[in-house]
Amino acid sequence: MPATAPPSLPPNQSLYVSNLNEKLPKPDLRRELYMLFSTYGPVLDITALKTAKMRGQAHVLFRDEGAATQALRAQNGQEFFGREMRITYSKNRSNTIAKLTGTFAPPSAVPDTAQTAAPVSSIPAPPGSLPPPPGLKVPGANNASPSPAPSQGTKRAREDSDDEGKGEEEEDDGAMDMSDDDD
Question: Going from the N-terminus, what domains does the chain have, and what CATH number goes with each?
Answer without folding.
Answer: 14-95 (3.30.70.330)
